[in-house]
User: What shape does this take?
Amino acid sequence: MRMAGVPLAEGDAATEREFPMPVRTFKKGVHPHDHKERTASSAVEDTPVPALLRIPVSQHLGKPALPVKGRGDEVVPGELICDADGFVSARVHSPVYGKVKRIVQQPLPAGRMSDYIEIEVNVEETQAHEWQRRDVDLDALDRKAVVDGIRDAGVVGMGGATFPTHVKFSPPPTAEIDTLVINGVECEPYLTCDHRLMLERTTELVEAIRILHRGFSFKRILFGIESNKPDAIEAVSTAAAGVSDTPIEIVPLKVKYPQGAEKMLIYAANGRTVPAGKLPLEIGVVVANVFTLVAIEDWFFWGKPLVDRVITVSGDGIKEARNLRAPIGTPFSDLVDGCGGIVGDVTKVIAGGPMMGVALPTLDYSVTKGSSGLLFLTNAEVVDESPCIRCGRCVDVCPMNLMPLKLAAYARAGKFLEARALHLNDCFECGSCAYACPARIKLVAWIRYAKNYVRVHKL
Assistant: This one.
Protein backbone atom coordinates (compact mmCIF):
# COMPACT_ATOMS: atom_id res chain seq x y z
CA MET A 1 0.00 0.00 0.00
CA ARG A 2 1.16 3.53 -0.73
CA MET A 3 -0.20 7.05 -1.01
CA ALA A 4 -0.92 7.98 -4.62
CA GLY A 5 -0.06 11.29 -6.25
CA VAL A 6 -1.25 12.99 -9.47
CA PRO A 7 -1.14 16.62 -10.62
CA LEU A 8 -3.53 18.96 -8.83
CA ALA A 9 -6.45 20.48 -10.73
CA GLU A 10 -5.85 24.05 -11.86
CA GLY A 11 -6.79 26.73 -9.37
CA ASP A 12 -6.90 24.44 -6.34
CA ALA A 13 -4.29 24.70 -3.61
CA ALA A 14 -3.13 21.60 -1.82
CA THR A 15 -4.12 21.06 1.79
CA GLU A 16 -1.50 18.57 2.91
CA ARG A 17 -2.53 18.21 6.56
CA GLU A 18 -0.74 15.19 7.96
CA PHE A 19 -0.69 13.25 4.68
CA PRO A 20 2.63 12.57 2.94
CA MET A 21 1.18 13.50 -0.46
CA PRO A 22 -0.98 16.52 -1.41
CA VAL A 23 -4.72 15.96 -1.46
CA ARG A 24 -6.25 15.80 -4.96
CA THR A 25 -9.37 17.29 -6.45
CA PHE A 26 -11.23 18.36 -9.61
CA LYS A 27 -12.11 21.69 -11.20
CA LYS A 28 -14.97 23.87 -9.92
CA GLY A 29 -17.49 22.53 -7.37
CA VAL A 30 -18.75 23.95 -4.06
CA HIS A 31 -18.00 23.75 -0.33
CA PRO A 32 -21.27 23.16 1.58
CA HIS A 33 -21.24 22.76 5.35
CA ASP A 34 -21.07 19.01 5.90
CA HIS A 35 -23.51 18.74 8.86
CA LYS A 36 -21.96 15.34 9.68
CA GLU A 37 -21.15 16.00 13.33
CA ARG A 38 -24.28 14.31 14.71
CA THR A 39 -23.54 10.91 13.18
CA ALA A 40 -19.85 10.77 12.16
CA SER A 41 -18.93 9.11 15.46
CA SER A 42 -22.14 7.06 15.74
CA ALA A 43 -21.51 3.35 15.24
CA VAL A 44 -23.92 1.48 13.00
CA GLU A 45 -26.89 0.01 14.88
CA ASP A 46 -29.29 -2.69 13.71
CA THR A 47 -32.95 -1.71 13.54
CA PRO A 48 -35.51 -3.96 15.22
CA VAL A 49 -36.91 -6.52 12.79
CA PRO A 50 -40.00 -4.92 11.18
CA ALA A 51 -43.35 -6.69 11.29
CA LEU A 52 -43.97 -5.82 7.62
CA LEU A 53 -41.61 -5.21 4.71
CA ARG A 54 -42.48 -3.45 1.45
CA ILE A 55 -39.83 -4.41 -1.11
CA PRO A 56 -39.93 -2.69 -4.53
CA VAL A 57 -39.06 -4.81 -7.57
CA SER A 58 -37.38 -1.78 -9.16
CA GLN A 59 -34.43 -0.69 -7.02
CA HIS A 60 -31.89 -0.17 -9.78
CA LEU A 61 -31.31 1.39 -13.17
CA GLY A 62 -32.58 -0.81 -15.97
CA LYS A 63 -35.58 -3.11 -16.24
CA PRO A 64 -37.51 -3.92 -13.05
CA ALA A 65 -36.98 -7.40 -11.64
CA LEU A 66 -39.67 -10.04 -12.16
CA PRO A 67 -41.41 -11.45 -9.04
CA VAL A 68 -40.98 -15.20 -8.62
CA LYS A 69 -43.01 -15.31 -5.40
CA GLY A 70 -46.69 -14.60 -5.04
CA ARG A 71 -49.36 -14.13 -2.41
CA GLY A 72 -49.18 -16.76 0.32
CA ASP A 73 -45.68 -17.99 -0.54
CA GLU A 74 -43.28 -18.59 2.33
CA VAL A 75 -39.84 -16.94 2.15
CA VAL A 76 -36.58 -17.33 4.05
CA PRO A 77 -33.56 -15.01 4.41
CA GLY A 78 -31.56 -14.82 1.19
CA GLU A 79 -34.21 -16.50 -0.95
CA LEU A 80 -34.78 -15.11 -4.43
CA ILE A 81 -38.10 -13.25 -4.63
CA CYS A 82 -37.50 -11.37 -7.92
CA ASP A 83 -35.29 -12.47 -10.80
CA ALA A 84 -33.43 -10.12 -13.11
CA ASP A 85 -35.36 -9.34 -16.28
CA GLY A 86 -32.54 -9.23 -18.80
CA PHE A 87 -28.91 -8.21 -18.57
CA VAL A 88 -29.40 -4.67 -17.22
CA SER A 89 -31.52 -5.65 -14.24
CA ALA A 90 -30.86 -6.96 -10.73
CA ARG A 91 -32.12 -9.77 -8.54
CA VAL A 92 -34.03 -9.10 -5.31
CA HIS A 93 -33.90 -11.38 -2.26
CA SER A 94 -35.84 -11.75 0.96
CA PRO A 95 -34.15 -10.38 4.10
CA VAL A 96 -36.46 -12.31 6.44
CA TYR A 97 -38.54 -15.33 7.29
CA GLY A 98 -42.16 -14.64 6.47
CA LYS A 99 -45.04 -14.89 4.04
CA VAL A 100 -45.88 -12.79 0.99
CA LYS A 101 -48.99 -10.80 1.85
CA ARG A 102 -49.60 -9.23 -1.56
CA ILE A 103 -47.99 -7.48 -4.52
CA VAL A 104 -49.14 -3.89 -4.83
CA GLN A 105 -48.18 -0.94 -7.03
CA GLN A 106 -46.91 2.19 -5.29
CA PRO A 107 -44.62 5.11 -6.18
CA LEU A 108 -40.90 5.10 -5.52
CA PRO A 109 -39.35 8.16 -3.81
CA ALA A 110 -38.33 9.56 -7.21
CA GLY A 111 -41.96 9.36 -8.40
CA ARG A 112 -41.92 6.34 -10.72
CA MET A 113 -44.41 3.57 -10.04
CA SER A 114 -43.20 0.12 -9.05
CA ASP A 115 -44.62 -3.16 -7.88
CA TYR A 116 -43.91 -3.80 -4.19
CA ILE A 117 -43.81 -7.21 -2.57
CA GLU A 118 -45.26 -6.97 0.93
CA ILE A 119 -43.96 -9.59 3.36
CA GLU A 120 -45.50 -10.36 6.74
CA VAL A 121 -42.40 -11.06 8.81
CA ASN A 122 -41.89 -13.91 11.25
CA VAL A 123 -40.03 -11.64 13.66
CA GLU A 124 -38.91 -14.28 16.15
CA GLU A 125 -37.48 -16.62 13.51
CA THR A 126 -35.77 -13.76 11.69
CA GLN A 127 -34.16 -12.49 14.89
CA ALA A 128 -32.65 -15.92 15.47
CA HIS A 129 -31.17 -16.19 11.97
CA GLU A 130 -27.40 -16.06 11.54
CA TRP A 131 -25.45 -16.10 8.29
CA GLN A 132 -22.79 -18.82 8.19
CA ARG A 133 -19.28 -18.02 6.97
CA ARG A 134 -18.02 -20.20 4.15
CA ASP A 135 -14.51 -20.94 2.92
CA VAL A 136 -13.45 -19.18 -0.27
CA ASP A 137 -10.42 -20.13 -2.35
CA LEU A 138 -9.52 -16.75 -3.82
CA ASP A 139 -6.93 -18.33 -6.11
CA ALA A 140 -9.67 -20.36 -7.78
CA LEU A 141 -11.71 -17.29 -8.72
CA ASP A 142 -11.66 -16.08 -12.31
CA ARG A 143 -13.49 -13.18 -13.95
CA LYS A 144 -16.61 -15.21 -14.76
CA ALA A 145 -16.93 -16.52 -11.21
CA VAL A 146 -16.58 -13.01 -9.79
CA VAL A 147 -19.14 -11.45 -12.14
CA ASP A 148 -21.58 -14.36 -11.73
CA GLY A 149 -21.37 -14.03 -7.95
CA ILE A 150 -22.05 -10.30 -8.08
CA ARG A 151 -25.08 -10.92 -10.30
CA ASP A 152 -26.40 -13.75 -8.12
CA ALA A 153 -26.17 -11.50 -5.04
CA GLY A 154 -28.22 -8.72 -6.64
CA VAL A 155 -25.48 -6.16 -6.01
CA VAL A 156 -25.99 -2.67 -7.42
CA GLY A 157 -24.05 0.57 -7.14
CA MET A 158 -24.66 1.77 -3.59
CA GLY A 159 -23.32 5.27 -4.07
CA GLY A 160 -26.65 6.48 -5.43
CA ALA A 161 -26.81 5.45 -9.09
CA THR A 162 -27.88 1.83 -8.33
CA PHE A 163 -26.53 0.60 -11.67
CA PRO A 164 -26.33 -3.23 -11.63
CA THR A 165 -22.75 -3.98 -10.62
CA HIS A 166 -22.38 -7.12 -12.72
CA VAL A 167 -23.01 -4.98 -15.82
CA LYS A 168 -20.33 -2.49 -14.80
CA PHE A 169 -17.86 -5.37 -14.45
CA SER A 170 -18.83 -6.89 -17.82
CA PRO A 171 -17.11 -4.58 -20.32
CA PRO A 172 -17.16 -5.36 -24.05
CA PRO A 173 -14.21 -7.38 -25.39
CA THR A 174 -12.71 -4.23 -26.89
CA ALA A 175 -12.50 -2.46 -23.51
CA GLU A 176 -9.40 -3.06 -21.41
CA ILE A 177 -10.01 -2.23 -17.74
CA ASP A 178 -6.72 -1.50 -16.02
CA THR A 179 -7.77 0.65 -13.04
CA LEU A 180 -10.21 0.13 -10.16
CA VAL A 181 -11.20 3.28 -8.26
CA ILE A 182 -12.87 2.83 -4.87
CA ASN A 183 -15.26 5.62 -3.88
CA GLY A 184 -14.89 6.34 -0.17
CA VAL A 185 -15.59 10.05 -0.57
CA GLU A 186 -19.16 10.49 0.75
CA CYS A 187 -19.24 14.21 -0.04
CA GLU A 188 -23.01 14.64 0.46
CA PRO A 189 -23.75 16.70 3.58
CA TYR A 190 -25.24 14.86 6.58
CA LEU A 191 -24.45 11.35 5.28
CA THR A 192 -21.93 9.25 7.22
CA CYS A 193 -22.89 5.64 6.50
CA ASP A 194 -19.93 5.05 4.15
CA HIS A 195 -17.58 6.66 6.67
CA ARG A 196 -18.74 4.25 9.34
CA LEU A 197 -18.35 1.26 7.01
CA MET A 198 -14.73 2.23 6.31
CA LEU A 199 -14.11 2.22 10.07
CA GLU A 200 -16.19 -0.77 11.10
CA ARG A 201 -15.82 -3.13 8.12
CA THR A 202 -12.35 -2.28 6.89
CA THR A 203 -11.23 -5.90 6.63
CA GLU A 204 -14.28 -6.79 4.54
CA LEU A 205 -13.57 -3.89 2.18
CA VAL A 206 -10.05 -5.12 1.53
CA GLU A 207 -11.26 -8.71 1.07
CA ALA A 208 -13.75 -7.53 -1.57
CA ILE A 209 -10.99 -5.65 -3.38
CA ARG A 210 -8.93 -8.87 -3.39
CA ILE A 211 -11.89 -10.72 -4.92
CA LEU A 212 -12.23 -8.16 -7.72
CA HIS A 213 -8.47 -8.16 -8.31
CA ARG A 214 -8.55 -11.95 -8.79
CA GLY A 215 -11.04 -11.52 -11.59
CA PHE A 216 -9.52 -8.52 -13.35
CA SER A 217 -5.81 -8.24 -12.42
CA PHE A 218 -5.95 -4.45 -12.24
CA LYS A 219 -2.74 -2.53 -12.85
CA ARG A 220 -3.80 0.08 -10.30
CA ILE A 221 -6.29 0.09 -7.43
CA LEU A 222 -6.96 3.59 -6.11
CA PHE A 223 -8.97 4.13 -2.90
CA GLY A 224 -10.22 7.73 -2.77
CA ILE A 225 -11.15 9.18 0.64
CA GLU A 226 -11.75 12.84 1.49
CA SER A 227 -9.19 14.36 3.85
CA ASN A 228 -11.86 15.19 6.47
CA LYS A 229 -11.91 11.46 7.31
CA PRO A 230 -8.37 10.91 8.64
CA ASP A 231 -9.58 8.02 10.80
CA ALA A 232 -10.90 6.22 7.71
CA ILE A 233 -7.69 6.94 5.80
CA GLU A 234 -5.67 5.46 8.65
CA ALA A 235 -7.93 2.41 9.01
CA VAL A 236 -7.95 1.57 5.30
CA SER A 237 -4.21 2.24 4.99
CA THR A 238 -3.46 -0.15 7.85
CA ALA A 239 -5.70 -2.88 6.42
CA ALA A 240 -4.29 -2.46 2.92
CA ALA A 241 -0.72 -2.63 4.22
CA GLY A 242 -1.45 -6.10 5.56
CA VAL A 243 -2.27 -7.47 2.11
CA SER A 244 0.67 -8.39 -0.11
CA ASP A 245 -1.15 -9.82 -3.13
CA THR A 246 -3.31 -6.78 -3.94
CA PRO A 247 -1.65 -3.36 -4.46
CA ILE A 248 -3.99 -0.72 -2.99
CA GLU A 249 -3.08 2.97 -3.21
CA ILE A 250 -4.78 5.37 -0.80
CA VAL A 251 -5.66 8.71 -2.42
CA PRO A 252 -6.49 11.55 0.03
CA LEU A 253 -8.91 13.94 -1.67
CA LYS A 254 -9.78 17.57 -1.06
CA VAL A 255 -13.02 18.23 0.80
CA LYS A 256 -15.20 19.56 -1.99
CA TYR A 257 -18.54 18.70 -3.54
CA PRO A 258 -19.17 16.70 -5.76
CA GLN A 259 -15.81 14.99 -5.19
CA GLY A 260 -17.55 11.61 -5.10
CA ALA A 261 -19.18 11.95 -8.52
CA GLU A 262 -17.76 9.29 -10.81
CA LYS A 263 -16.13 11.54 -13.40
CA MET A 264 -14.80 13.96 -10.78
CA LEU A 265 -13.39 11.11 -8.70
CA ILE A 266 -11.63 9.52 -11.66
CA TYR A 267 -10.03 12.83 -12.64
CA ALA A 268 -8.90 13.53 -9.09
CA ALA A 269 -7.61 10.00 -8.46
CA ASN A 270 -5.53 9.43 -11.58
CA GLY A 271 -5.87 12.43 -13.88
CA ARG A 272 -7.96 10.73 -16.58
CA THR A 273 -10.92 12.56 -18.11
CA VAL A 274 -14.11 10.74 -19.11
CA PRO A 275 -15.31 12.39 -22.37
CA ALA A 276 -18.85 13.76 -22.55
CA GLY A 277 -21.33 11.03 -23.36
CA LYS A 278 -18.83 8.27 -22.61
CA LEU A 279 -18.45 5.75 -19.78
CA PRO A 280 -15.44 5.24 -17.49
CA LEU A 281 -14.77 1.81 -18.99
CA GLU A 282 -13.95 3.56 -22.27
CA ILE A 283 -10.86 5.04 -20.61
CA GLY A 284 -10.00 1.81 -18.79
CA VAL A 285 -11.53 2.61 -15.39
CA VAL A 286 -14.26 1.08 -13.25
CA VAL A 287 -15.54 2.70 -10.03
CA ALA A 288 -17.05 0.93 -7.02
CA ASN A 289 -18.57 2.42 -3.87
CA VAL A 290 -17.45 1.14 -0.46
CA PHE A 291 -20.88 -0.28 0.37
CA THR A 292 -20.86 -2.11 -2.95
CA LEU A 293 -17.63 -3.76 -1.83
CA VAL A 294 -19.15 -4.77 1.50
CA ALA A 295 -22.06 -6.39 -0.35
CA ILE A 296 -19.63 -8.32 -2.55
CA GLU A 297 -17.72 -9.60 0.49
CA ASP A 298 -20.99 -10.56 2.18
CA TRP A 299 -21.91 -12.79 -0.74
CA PHE A 300 -18.61 -14.55 -1.34
CA PHE A 301 -17.70 -15.18 2.30
CA TRP A 302 -21.15 -15.47 3.90
CA GLY A 303 -23.56 -16.37 1.10
CA LYS A 304 -25.54 -13.27 1.98
CA PRO A 305 -27.13 -11.40 -0.94
CA LEU A 306 -27.85 -7.69 -0.79
CA VAL A 307 -30.76 -7.75 1.68
CA ASP A 308 -29.97 -4.83 3.98
CA ARG A 309 -28.09 -1.55 3.99
CA VAL A 310 -26.84 1.19 6.29
CA ILE A 311 -28.72 4.48 6.12
CA THR A 312 -28.01 7.78 7.89
CA VAL A 313 -31.05 9.31 9.60
CA SER A 314 -30.26 12.92 10.48
CA GLY A 315 -31.24 16.59 10.37
CA ASP A 316 -32.40 18.96 13.10
CA GLY A 317 -35.91 17.54 12.80
CA ILE A 318 -35.05 14.08 14.14
CA LYS A 319 -34.55 13.53 17.86
CA GLU A 320 -31.63 11.05 17.74
CA ALA A 321 -29.57 11.08 14.55
CA ARG A 322 -28.17 7.61 13.83
CA ASN A 323 -26.59 5.28 11.31
CA LEU A 324 -28.96 2.33 11.04
CA ARG A 325 -28.62 -1.03 9.32
CA ALA A 326 -32.09 -1.89 8.07
CA PRO A 327 -33.52 -4.73 5.97
CA ILE A 328 -34.47 -3.74 2.43
CA GLY A 329 -38.18 -2.92 2.54
CA THR A 330 -38.19 -1.44 6.06
CA PRO A 331 -40.81 1.35 6.23
CA PHE A 332 -39.33 4.81 6.75
CA SER A 333 -41.72 5.25 9.66
CA ASP A 334 -39.90 2.43 11.48
CA LEU A 335 -36.62 4.33 11.07
CA VAL A 336 -38.23 7.42 12.56
CA ASP A 337 -39.46 5.43 15.55
CA GLY A 338 -35.98 3.98 16.00
CA CYS A 339 -34.54 7.49 16.20
CA GLY A 340 -36.92 8.82 18.84
CA GLY A 341 -39.38 10.50 16.49
CA ILE A 342 -39.67 13.84 14.74
CA VAL A 343 -39.01 17.05 16.66
CA GLY A 344 -39.32 20.74 15.85
CA ASP A 345 -40.76 22.41 12.79
CA VAL A 346 -39.91 19.92 10.03
CA THR A 347 -40.26 21.65 6.67
CA LYS A 348 -38.77 19.04 4.37
CA VAL A 349 -38.06 15.30 4.42
CA ILE A 350 -35.43 14.09 1.96
CA ALA A 351 -34.58 10.58 0.79
CA GLY A 352 -30.81 10.66 0.20
CA GLY A 353 -28.63 13.70 0.71
CA PRO A 354 -29.65 17.37 0.51
CA MET A 355 -27.78 17.91 -2.78
CA MET A 356 -28.99 14.98 -4.89
CA GLY A 357 -31.79 13.54 -2.79
CA VAL A 358 -35.54 13.62 -3.38
CA ALA A 359 -38.06 15.53 -1.24
CA LEU A 360 -40.81 13.24 0.05
CA PRO A 361 -44.49 14.17 0.37
CA THR A 362 -45.07 11.51 3.04
CA LEU A 363 -43.18 8.81 4.95
CA ASP A 364 -45.08 6.07 3.11
CA TYR A 365 -41.91 4.70 1.50
CA SER A 366 -39.38 2.04 2.41
CA VAL A 367 -35.65 1.38 2.40
CA THR A 368 -34.22 0.33 -0.97
CA LYS A 369 -30.74 -0.73 -2.06
CA GLY A 370 -29.99 2.88 -2.96
CA SER A 371 -31.23 4.48 0.28
CA SER A 372 -28.24 6.32 1.74
CA GLY A 373 -30.01 8.83 3.95
CA LEU A 374 -33.30 10.02 5.41
CA LEU A 375 -33.12 13.67 6.42
CA PHE A 376 -35.55 15.78 8.43
CA LEU A 377 -34.86 19.46 7.82
CA THR A 378 -36.41 22.24 9.86
CA ASN A 379 -37.50 25.66 8.69
CA ALA A 380 -34.08 27.05 9.66
CA GLU A 381 -32.39 24.63 7.24
CA VAL A 382 -34.57 25.46 4.21
CA VAL A 383 -34.41 28.73 2.22
CA ASP A 384 -37.21 30.05 0.00
CA GLU A 385 -36.70 30.84 -3.69
CA SER A 386 -36.40 34.42 -5.02
CA PRO A 387 -35.87 35.95 -8.51
CA CYS A 388 -32.63 35.33 -10.43
CA ILE A 389 -30.08 38.16 -10.19
CA ARG A 390 -28.00 36.99 -13.20
CA CYS A 391 -24.85 36.54 -11.13
CA GLY A 392 -23.54 33.51 -13.03
CA ARG A 393 -22.50 31.57 -9.95
CA CYS A 394 -24.27 28.45 -11.21
CA VAL A 395 -22.01 28.48 -14.27
CA ASP A 396 -18.90 29.14 -12.17
CA VAL A 397 -19.38 26.03 -10.01
CA CYS A 398 -20.76 23.48 -12.51
CA PRO A 399 -18.20 20.65 -12.69
CA MET A 400 -19.49 19.73 -16.17
CA ASN A 401 -19.07 23.29 -17.52
CA LEU A 402 -22.76 23.64 -18.34
CA MET A 403 -25.10 26.64 -18.14
CA PRO A 404 -27.64 25.54 -15.50
CA LEU A 405 -29.71 28.74 -15.61
CA LYS A 406 -30.19 28.43 -19.36
CA LEU A 407 -31.16 24.78 -19.05
CA ALA A 408 -33.68 25.57 -16.31
CA ALA A 409 -35.11 28.50 -18.30
CA TYR A 410 -35.61 26.29 -21.36
CA ALA A 411 -37.29 23.67 -19.17
CA ARG A 412 -39.67 26.27 -17.73
CA ALA A 413 -40.55 27.42 -21.25
CA GLY A 414 -41.01 23.90 -22.60
CA LYS A 415 -38.10 24.33 -25.03
CA PHE A 416 -36.70 20.86 -24.56
CA LEU A 417 -34.85 20.57 -27.87
CA GLU A 418 -33.01 23.80 -27.10
CA ALA A 419 -32.09 22.40 -23.67
CA ARG A 420 -30.82 19.19 -25.23
CA ALA A 421 -28.66 21.21 -27.62
CA LEU A 422 -26.95 22.76 -24.57
CA HIS A 423 -25.81 19.29 -23.44
CA LEU A 424 -28.73 18.72 -21.09
CA ASN A 425 -27.93 15.04 -20.65
CA ASP A 426 -24.36 15.74 -19.53
CA CYS A 427 -25.81 17.08 -16.26
CA PHE A 428 -25.65 14.43 -13.54
CA GLU A 429 -27.81 16.49 -11.15
CA CYS A 430 -25.16 17.04 -8.48
CA GLY A 431 -26.91 20.17 -7.17
CA SER A 432 -23.83 22.43 -7.07
CA CYS A 433 -25.66 25.06 -9.13
CA ALA A 434 -28.70 25.14 -6.84
CA TYR A 435 -26.46 25.34 -3.78
CA ALA A 436 -24.44 28.25 -5.18
CA CYS A 437 -27.52 30.17 -6.37
CA PRO A 438 -28.14 33.12 -4.00
CA ALA A 439 -31.77 33.16 -5.15
CA ARG A 440 -32.14 29.46 -4.26
CA ILE A 441 -33.79 28.72 -7.61
CA LYS A 442 -34.64 25.03 -7.98
CA LEU A 443 -32.31 24.59 -10.93
CA VAL A 444 -31.83 20.85 -10.55
CA ALA A 445 -35.56 20.20 -10.32
CA TRP A 446 -36.12 21.98 -13.64
CA ILE A 447 -33.19 20.25 -15.30
CA ARG A 448 -34.37 16.86 -14.03
CA TYR A 449 -37.84 17.63 -15.41
CA ALA A 450 -36.36 18.44 -18.83
CA LYS A 451 -34.23 15.29 -18.86
CA ASN A 452 -37.23 13.13 -18.00
CA TYR A 453 -39.32 14.80 -20.72
CA VAL A 454 -36.61 14.23 -23.33
CA ARG A 455 -36.25 10.61 -22.26
CA VAL A 456 -39.96 9.79 -22.16
CA HIS A 457 -40.73 11.51 -25.47
CA LYS A 458 -37.52 10.25 -27.11
CA LEU A 459 -36.54 13.71 -28.34
Remarks:
- The two ends are 48 Å apart (CA to CA).
